[in-house]
Amino acid sequence: MAETHDKKQMKIGELARRSRLSERSLRHYEDLGILKPERSEGGTRTYGERDVALAKLIQSMRNLDIPLEVVAAIAGVRAKHATGAGSSHEVAAKLNELSENLMLMARLAIEIQGEVNGVLSAVNECRGCTNRPSRSGCPTCPMNAVSEASPLADMIWRGESA
Fold it and tell me: Does the residue 120 lie in any domain?
């Protein structure tokens, strides 16, 4: 049997502390087949450094609103196949779909970041201004011009009381 460099030494509490996830979440990931701890002779779950990294990856994926069902499907797809060829096709398909979704989210995040940065630039020009922060209170306010082109700036200005 091949020797592993990931000694399974920590218990679930230590994994929870190091990954900043709850024991309940870690057990849920195990129930879904995403996290696969070894068991001691007494039945205690044991984890290693790779499990810490995997738990953090799962949490990062969750922070991006990737459903656990998608993560679980990726984690379990290889075991469903008798050959590497069959497995590789399905794994590649699932990873390509995930990659496309991540690219879409990244493009959307960059677009929103551009919007935020544009409005932030206008807001920063208002530092030190003593006028009322409204269209009518400060007719030369940079936010007036920006709000015409930016939905975010418009949202900020919409709440003004004259």
Answer: no
Residues with Cβ within 8 Å of residue 120, at least 6 apart in sequence: none
Each residue's pLDDT tens digit in the chain (162 positions)?
A: 334 456 778 999 999 999 999 999 999 999 999 999 998 888 888 999 999 999 999 999 999 999 999 999 999 998 888 888 889 999 999 999 999 999 999 999 999 999 999 999 998 988 888 888 777 788 888 888 888 889 999 898 886 554
Domain assignment of residue 140, given as a range = 128-162
| Same-domain pairing of 78 and 135 | no
End-of-domain residue from the set 85, 113, 142: 85
Name the H helices within 32-141. 49-63, 68-77, 84-125
**Domain count for the chain:** 2
